Amino acid sequence: MTTASVDVDTARRDYAALVDRGLSLDITRGKPSPAQLDLANGLLTLPGDGTFKAEDGTDVRNYGGLKGLPELRRIFAGALQVPAGQLLAAGNSSLELMHDAVVQALLSKLPGAERRWADEPTLKFLAPVPGYDRHFALTERFGIELVPVPMTDQGPDMAVVERLVAEDSAVKGIWCVPKYSNPTGVTFSDDVVKRFATMTTAAPDFRIFWDNAYAVHHLTDAEPALADLLALATEAGNADRVFVFGSTSKITHAGAGVGFFGASEANLAWWVGNIGKRTIGPDKVNQLRHALFLEDEAGVRAHMRKHAEIIGPKFEAVDRILTEELGDSGLATWTKPTGGYFVSLTVPEGTAKEVVRLAKEAGVALTPAGATHPHGDDPADAVIRIAPTFPVLADVEEAVRALAVCVRLAAAERA
Amino acid sequence: MTTASVDVDTARRDYAALVDRGLSLDITRGKPSPAQLDLANGLLTLPGDGTFKAEDGTDVRNYGGLKGLPELRRIFAGALQVPAGQLLAAGNSSLELMHDAVVQALLSKLPGAERRWADEPTLKFLAPVPGYDRHFALTERFGIELVPVPMTDQGPDMAVVERLVAEDSAVKGIWCVPKYSNPTGVTFSDDVVKRFATMTTAAPDFRIFWDNAYAVHHLTDAEPALADLLALATEAGNADRVFVFGSTSKITHAGAGVGFFGASEANLAWWVGNIGKRTIGPDKVNQLRHALFLEDEAGVRAHMRKHAEIIGPKFEAVDRILTEELGDSGLATWTKPTGGYFVSLTVPEGTAKEVVRLAKEAGVALTPAGATHPHGDDPADAVIRIAPTFPVLADVEEAVRALAVCVRLAAAERA
Questions:
Q1: Are strands A242-247 and A207-211 parallel, antiparallel or unpaired?
Q2: Of B29, B32, B92, the CB nearest to A282
Q3: pLDDT band, very low/low/confident/very high, at B2 (cuts 50, 70, 90)
Q4: B6-37 burial, b for 16+ CB within 10 Å, e for fewer?
Q5: b/e A163-197 (16+ beta carbons within 10 angstroms → b)
Q6: Sheet of B155-156: strands edge to edge?
Q7: Better pLDDT: B178 or B5
Q8: B178 contact A CB<8A
Q9: Cβ neighbour number for residue B5 with a 10 Å cutoff
Q10: Virtual torsion, Cα B369, B373, B375, B380, nearest 10 deg
Q11: How far is CA A38 from CA A41, A234, B51, in A?
């Protein structure tokens, strides 16, 4: 990126005026807005008076059913690209399923593994960057070394991935958000997915953590197809390398949705054997509530269009204002996602932290610079994640305009 | 127990008649009956149309709130004997909280610990017997050795507990169901609780897993008081040794309730720091649903009286029929619990497995003999757990009468 000259006096004056406005705005996290949550308020009175039987007659109020309700698993099988029989419906969070997958692998030998991960001398995960801070934090906590892999506009740089997984058996996993990736918005290309399915790994117990968090979260009618990793890997004899995760958190209610885990039969047997010691079953009442509310795959699709109507204009506003404020400055590039929850803004090297600091002092909270990288360290100090869904449109516009002021000042003072 | 003589021909004839009846009854697990679940059907339409704000204004539909809703924590603070500020409300299961406490201790150093449990050469838990099979299975899975401790009618034999925890730093924990214990129905005496609070442990990171599953589950008006372990331990400078667990599973809906975890501030900081990497918060909508339904501590008490009206007669039937069938036989003793979910039946040594087998062949499913002991092994082969809550009263009566036939036959054939 070429850094155009910025008049430092103008930049300072603009910033002083911004601070004087005393804003208090927050575009830090990928949270749905109240208007989005309202779309699922039907859940607040479901499953309804006297309704507590699943389609197979199970009393959802009682214990049992480790795999979750078949009717709900069926609704999401298509979107998550996992046969319903291999897709489990669980608690209110997919993050906890990813965490527990790592924990179970640490403490109980995975199918194909020579030993428990806890007994390995070194553990590494590949981390496409920029990526999702909660993925990184989860693995870092267990002392798992994160090896950055550059993201391209097709997905992770597969030449790098293939080399690392082939040469080092300590590399046990990779974090992926394959559709509308967090934070770049990229959907992995067919070639990338196919290479994931067929690549040679040194570790017999390598796992792809396929966090398909935004499977149905389209912002436009242009819905990019994602190749079916589990099917391709199964075809290639590598079924066990795939762990699929998903949830309704950004479909219905963020804190009260249903998480999903999909995998091969061998992985599922391992999973169910382990969680059977942990729980007598998930909240099936909430699963029935969701099945009744969403009805079927078409119901999910119709529901997601209402989300797009609310948040689409916010994403358009981010792009419009960044274009107005920084478009011809040479100071920034940014993604124009057609789905998901984030815009990734790239500012001049060495200024991202300063931009976030300046914004904070002006009353605009941003995700910490570096959060998109392992250990919170973006070596170029250039990537800022924008999460425009939660605030109302006017606040998004104001926050992004303020952000542009901070980008200009940081660049000017660095020049 | 003296084993009176039983006429083997009579016993065989009775058993043949029983088999001929082709029963199909199940008194295996501590599950609430549909009639009990019906008591909480108000939950099926709660929190209600447009109701999604907690008392502090939190939108329960969105992410966040690792500690759970204060209004719900307050309702259960008294019953669980944990100050509301130190009591966390979580997901739908307390078993998973116990599991995760063990997992977190394995992988992240506990307050006071010298190292992670995973890095200890040997790990042991004390297991009061007879006890709860799911507790045992959870710890066995991680290779934790279970050391049996006899239960008395006052709680675990504290002379044994004190000796074991004082002399062996590999002993890291003990499983306790302190009120209406599973399966004996014993409530720990004040002396036992006080000794737990004050005893000297060789391990600096010893933890009492205080599973107060039946805190409010009275069957009669005689409600035994349980001393406040956390308060006593805190007073003795041992606050960190206490992990309290509880849940609404057998209060509202077994599969869709709320679990609780209570502990010292240091333990809570450790816990929240760990689960903060796992989840963005529990299902707060379900917590609000419960707070609205139960209202307050008096609401819980009133609700539990309705349970007692349903299951009290089932426990009375167990006692009445065992008395009628075996009372003067000298073949069996059994507990007469005033709360909780189980009756513990003791049959002549070496016959429990055979009784369960005979019952199964006659169409009456019982919890496997030995399940009340670590590794499923009751050395005396004498304890059978009866769970009378789930079947309707007539089926409980029939099942227990059938059980008595099997007890008589097993004893006669062994004689």
A1: parallel
A2: B92
A3: very low
A4: beeeebeebbeebeeeebebebbbbbbbeebb
A5: ebbeebbbbbbbbbbbbbbbbbbbbbbeebbbbbb
A6: B87-89, B259-262, B242-247, B207-211, B171-176, B124-129, B145-152, B155-156
A7: B178
A8: no
A9: 10
A10: -70
A11: 5, 40, 11
**Distance (Å, whole) CA B4 – CA B1:** 9
pLDDT of residue B4: 54
In B264-293, the residues whose Cβ lies within 8 Å of chain A are 274, 277-286
* Average pLDDT of span B69-88: 98
Question: B44 and A138: CB-CB below 8 Å?
Answer: no
CB B37 to CB A52 under 8 A? yes
pLDDT, residue A6, reads 78
- The chain B residue lying nearest A278, using CA atoms, is B96
Dihedral sign from CA coordinates of B83, B85, B86, B89: positive
**Contact call for residues B116 and B108 (beta carbons, < 8 A):** yes
- Looking at beta carbons, which residues of chain A come within 8 Å of B51? 44
Render B275-293 in DSSP notation, one character per residue. HTTT-S---HHHHHHHHHH
Q: Please give the Cα distance from A37 to A258 (Å, whole number).
A: 15
Whether A96 sits inside 8 A of B284 (CB atoms) is: no
Whether pLDDT at B300 is above 60: yes
Cβ of residue B28 closer than 8 Å to a chain A Cβ? no
CA dist B42 and B290 (Å) reads: 10
CA-to-CA dists, residue B219 to A102, B21, B181, B336, angstroms: 43, 32, 13, 11
- Interface mutation vs chain A, best among B33, B60, B62, B109, most A CBs within 10 Å: B62
Q: Which of A91, A254, A274 sits opposite B62 (nearest CB)?
A: A254
> Residues with Cβ < 8 Å from A141, sequence gap 6 or more?
B108, B274, B277
Q: Which residues contact A16 (CB under 8 A, 6 or more apart)?
A: none
Tokens read off for A64: 């049992």
Separation in Å, CA A339 to CA A40, A182, A209: 20, 10, 20
**A108 chain-B contacts, CB cut-off 8 A:** 141
Residue A2 has pLDDT above 50, yes or no: no
Question: HSE (CB half, 13 Å, CA atoms) of A254?
Answer: 24
pLDDT at A3 over 90: no
pLDDT at A415: 78
Task: Please check whether residue A48 touches B, CB under 8 A.
Answer: yes
Beta strands A87-89 and A259-262 are antiparallel
Contact A255 B60 (CB under 8 A): yes
Ordered by where they begin, the domains of chain A are: 8-30+301-414 (3.90.1150.10), 49-294 (3.40.640.10)
For position A29, what pLDDT does the model report?
86
CB contact under 8 A, A63 and B279: no
Whether B195 and B162 have beta carbons less than 8 Å apart is answered as: yes
Dump pLDDT digits (tens) for B384-409.
999 999 999 999 999 999 999 999 99
Mean per-residue pLDDT, B246-263? 98
Question: Rounded CA gap, B79 and A369, in Å?
Answer: 45
A62/B41 Cβ within 8 A: no
**Is A314 a residue whose pLDDT tops 80?**
yes
pLDDT at B338: 97
- Yes or no, beta carbons of B278 and A59 under 8 Å apart: no
pLDDT at A184 over 90: yes
Q: Give the pTM.
A: 0.97
Q: Which of the residues A31, A37, A39, A44 would you substitute to probe the B interface, choosing the one with the greatest number of B C-beta atoms within 10 Å?
A: A44
pLDDT at A212 over 50: yes
Q: B191 is written with which tokens? A: 């002396």
- CA distances from residue B143 to B122, B136, B138, B211 in whole angstroms, order as listed: 9, 11, 10, 21
Q: How far is Cα B249 from Cα B137, in angstroms, rounded to an integer?
A: 20
**Yes or no, beta carbons of A255 and B49 under 8 Å apart:** no
Q: CB contact, 8 Å: B143 with chain A? A: no
